[in-house]
Amino acid sequence: MYLRDARAIDYIQTRPDWDGKTIVIMGTSMGGQQSLVTAGLRPQVTAVIVNEPSGADSNGDLHGRKAGYPNWPSKDPKVMETALYFDTVNFASRIKAPVLAASGFIDTTAPPWNPTTTTGHLKSRASMSPAPRKCSVSSRTAASSSR
Q1: Is 137 domain-assigned?
Q2: SS3 for 75?
Q3: Side-chain-side CA neighbours of residue 121 (13 Å)
Q4: 138, part of any domain
Q5: H or E segment to which residue 24 belongs
Q6: Which of 32, 45, 95, 114 could bond 50 through an S-S bridge, CB–CB 3.0 to 4.6 Å?
């Protein structure tokens, strides 16, 4: 997965319609995880925007925190050792681009400390923001706005 994402950046750089400077990547949940890792693997990335990224703090269960997705089995020491390689924290110090990260405070798939754990290891500029509450549109509002 990570290699595929990095190769997508390589492909973008070959396109004649690319401006030769700007590569902004963004993602939510696992897409946020992939965005952070890709930025760590490809210094050509100029900005990263992630919303509730998963894949950080893989061994959080061993330290009294909920680890979140991908929910590696914490009782197996070999799995925990391997999980750290895939953890976004492993790539954070390589990210050169500024990062804007949002976290959801009630998200159990990507707990709020996931992006905080990663951004704490960045050498680039980082901004954290709480994710906005989900809003819903009632059918009456939707019907009246379509007139």
Answers
A1: no
A2: coil
A3: 19
A4: no
A5: strand 24-28
A6: 32
